[in-house]
Amino acid sequence: MRKYGKDGRLDCVICNRCGKKLAVKHGIVREGVFTSDHRWDFFSEKDGEIHHFDLCEDCYNEVTAEFRVPVDVEDEIDIEDLIEEEQCVFTLTQAGYIKRTPLAEYRTQNRGGVGAKGSATRDEDFIEHIYVASMHNTMLFFTEKGRCYWLKVYEIPEGARSSKGRAIQNVIQIEPDDKVRAYINVKRLNDAEYVNNNFIIMCTKDGTIKKTKLEAYSRPRQNGVNAIVIREGDQLIEAKLTSGNAEVMIAAREGKAIRFNESTVRPIGRVGAGVRGISIEESDEVVGMICVEPDSTQDVLVLSENGYGKRTDLDEYRITNRGGKGVKTINVTEKTGKLISIQAVTDDNDLMIINRSGLTIRTAVSQIRLAGRATQGVRIINLRDGDAIASVMAVPAAGDEEEVQSAEAAENGGATPEAGQPAEE
Question: What is the full DSSP assignment across 192-261?
Fold first, then answer.
């Protein structure tokens, strides 16, 4: 890769093999990065974004001849040096719209609130996944068909909390009929010791589990790679990064969960299909998986579709062999609804919940008291009629941010439930 820098306004640059034009008003280019595969990346001061252009050979030669000015090696600047290191939340909707937003834009509320408007979505669309990452990290995207794609966090389009984002097909080369289902946040892929001593564990909807070395995913490819063989009727639902000695828990929709040691799953190559992690009925399906490292203080938090949830000590789940039916992790009733999420949390986490309507609530995990394994828990979020929980994520605590009432409660002169109210068990 060769780097060049020049101050000067650009009128247009399109091509993308070959829509020609080559003349855009993007702002002043501080640095252009020209690659051997005819791609040109540059940072625009006007919108603060990194823009990417795939050029045919003729257009590449024309652009590089006109705009590139070689600079001394000592004057070269890594494009990441232009990006501020900060925590951000990226969201992905059910229809495939992606964006990143500064984490600070999400405020903390008491549990039991109705939330604040989190994202504008199209009709019948809703936010399905959220994730917290640092700007300089690399995200690995895993699709339900078992494909893996790479993307730097700062390359995810930025948007306000209320904006809908950009179609993910314009960000990564995902197939039109495929869908991103899991994400992994990786700090570095060029460290041989790191990638050879860490693993990715994947889980599918029918309870299959697979373990592969991170090294197999350390060489990014623009078109992605196969991560797991998906059998007909199945789909990938989760992927986690582990050290090789974690405790794995898999939870099913009917309220059962199984715990076993990661060492019982041997690592295999990218093209393998995996082994049985949990046995479930035909009418049941896996809703999530967590991996807890040794000596961790994390508890198990589960949440039902009607807004009930609870924390339980990990030790209340006995260790069994993989492939079993598991034990009850929440008492599923008509009031609670089916299980939809399992998370590994501590008192230093907040719980971020996004509804199908786009409402979000961020509540401190410390407000949710420990409860028994087979109880139904407390109400975490009040749902309006016809609404349902779409996505749940444990994020770093908000620190000393002011706790606020929900907009609806303020309008009605009411208040959100206090943290110390009795549990509804």
Answer: HHHHHS-EEEEEETTSEEEEEEGGGG-S--TT-EE-SPPPTT--EEEEEEE-S-PEEEEEETTSEEEEEE
